[in-house]
Amino acid sequence: MSPIWSRILFLLLAWPLFAWAEDSAVPLRPLYTAEQQAWLAEHRQLRVGLLMQAPWALYDRRQQRLSGANVELMSRLLQGMGVEPLWVRFAEQDELDGAVRRGEVDLAPGLQQTPRGLRLWLYSAPYMRVPHLVVSEQRGISAVDLDRLGHDELVAVREPSAVFEYLYKTHNNLRLQAVSSERVGLLRLLRQEVSYAVVDEARLSLLLREPQFAALSIVGDIGLPQLLRIASRRDEPLLAEILERTLEAMPGREIELLRERWLPLKYPQIGESLAFWRGLALLLLLALLSTAAIVLHLRQQRRGLERQLLGVRQELSQREVAEQALRLSQFSIDHSTVGILWVNWDSHVRYANRAAEDMLGYAGGALVDLPLQALEPSLDMDRWLSLWKLARSSDEALPGFESECLRADGSGLPVDVSLSFLRFDRAEYLVVFLADVTERRRARAALQESEARLKGIAGNVPGLVFRLERTAVEQQVVFAYISEGSVELVGYPAAELQRADRGIRSLVHPDDQASYRRSQDAALAGDRDWQWQGRILTRAGQLRWADIKATARRLGEGRVVWDGIVWDISENKQVELALGESRARLRELSAHLESVREEEKARIAREVHDELGQVLTVLKLETAMCELVCSGQLPELDKHLQNMKRLIAQLFQLVRDVATALRPPILDAGIASAIEWQVRRFEARTQIPCMVEVPENLPKLSDAKAIGLFRILQEALTNIMRHAGAHSVQVSLRLEDGELCLCVSDDGKGFAPEQRKPGQSFGLVGMQERVLMLGGRLQIDSQPGEGTTLCARVAVAEEEVA
């Protein structure tokens, strides 16, 4: 065969291999920073939002499987990131945007960057450009220039769409006809109602598969491509950086293969000409015929030589195989880790491999003709003959046993001995297999010592040490070990508690069985650590408080163990309960003192208002009488009387302010009126705009609850004035689920509640204690730079609601 034809044949045969190698996916190896690697280690699963639009995302209900260009792309990227995808499907873009607002989606592929989307997403660099193509009936290979189209030619475009707006604004010469979908536009094109239709590449790749649109062709590009990006949540900038790095590491060839597989469109090329393909096919046919003729001629010449060489090759091959097998067998026997001795009926060694010689410390060939009793003194002739008869009459190897052999230097060697009967070349042998078990004995001794040490430690621990084990996922858990400390703790021996019908569960107090089962079931279901506190009953019926802590360990193949300990915390629990009761009493005392203080404030306010007010009124009348009697007689006296009237007026105002501070009279009109009055006073004093929302019909609260809510509002407004730097305040009072909720919100600088230092937030502590005294709860939501919201909820009694 000539060299040129050899090269042509080689290229034709090797082309599929080259194509396969080019299409093979290269493993992604993006370089992440330490911070990005730590983030990926914490997030082993990401929620991927998919817009279910072909060919980007499809769902096969029969096979229960997702497919599509975006599905393959995200599977490839997440595999490179080392995380698992959790697919979340959506029908519309608005549903996907709503999901990311609620924090239900981490990232989404195939989105276009828009001003509205920038408020919700962080976008990657474009990974695919999807053009909008101009489609028409078959018109050869010439491209269409939209700027040169006449007014008599209609162009079908889906409306509403960004493409319609783009063409309407940039091509004034076009006569656009709005259609509801791309399919409708192509149908009008077939009916010759329009001259052209504009369809994006993804939708066109699906429509051209239908036989009715097979005659259509692509004749141009409008120049407005869809730039597809991967969007991620705005509150996870590290995820956006990781996606960007992974996209950069992805070979561009993979994106092209993805486009060819899911968007299989052929653009007008000169190679699509029918004449071109006919000429190429004819050329390939001639090349194949010539190659076949040459190959046939060479085969006829080689057949004669092959027949002559076939017999010789087979014979040489059989010899080589036999020799190789013999060498391999001998090599395997000599280098085996098991010593092999062939022993005759007279107990003399006839063959020993190299492993046996090295194991027993003999030189090469020194073991041959040596009696077996020299190696194992307890193996006398009588015992040997009994073993010989037993092995000869048995079809299987005899069970092994441990023994101790003598080495050449007289030292002992612990071995595991196995015997097997063998007939070879009209002779009978007993094959002795020797395995060195020195390390096994050392490991066994170390294990026994370790178990004894563990039992000693567990027995001295002031509690009950246990191991809970599950051998497989579907199997039940059992107590593999319970220390003897169970006798001292609960009075039961360990063997009794290890029974399947007992366990620690049988010791739990009946009232605490539900919480015990919930904590244990949760730990077993998630293969995680187990912790529980509750009451147990000893064998003598004594009640004790116990604390169970166990650490879970996965051992592979579904096996999980929990190593833990049961502590007796009865004394600590009694102290804790006593401390809780003491706190409750202190809170009751504080509530009583607060009530007494408020009553004292109200009494003082009444006395100040009534008694001091009467005195000031009399003083004002006396001053007026003096002014009437002495008016105009002494100018100095008139001046002093005017000063006294002014001072009396100021004293009147001071009395009203003191009485109002002690107990505002507006509280008698109801908590809603009091809240609105206090907020308006705050607004007038600080010039900060305030919005108040209070219901018209509120239940009449007890005096203690009304005063408590009013004081909380006063403290909250004081904190806003001193620390918040707010520009506006919102105060609302509403009835929700039998609770009265007071909310105070500002748009100030906010703070981090967890970073509060002791001694710097007595106002918040006072509000918290005041709400607890009222039997309610206080919630504070704040972040630096995002303002603060304070909500106090107090239960409303049924008689108050009525």
Automatic annotation (TrEMBL):
One annotated GO molecular function is: phosphorelay sensor kinase activity
The residues covered by the PAS domain are: 450-527
Q: Which residues cross the membrane?
A: 275-298
Describe the location of the Histidine kinase domain by residue ranges: 603-798
InterPro entries found in the cross-reference section: HATPase_C_sf, HATPase_dom, His_kinase_dom, PAC, PAS, PAS-assoc_C, PAS-like_dom_sf, PAS_4
Recorded GO CC terms: membrane
The UniProt record lists the PAC domain at 399-449, 530-581
Keyword check for Transmembrane helix, yes or no: yes
What name appears for this protein in its UniProt entry? Multi-sensor signal transduction histidine kinase
- Keywords annotated in UniProt: Kinase, Membrane, Transferase, Transmembrane, Transmembrane helix, Two-component regulatory system
UniProt-listed Gene3D superfamilies = 1.20.5.1930, Histidine kinase-like ATPase, C-terminal domain, PAS domain, Periplasmic binding protein-like II
Transmembrane recorded as keyword: yes
Organism of provenance: Pseudomonas borbori
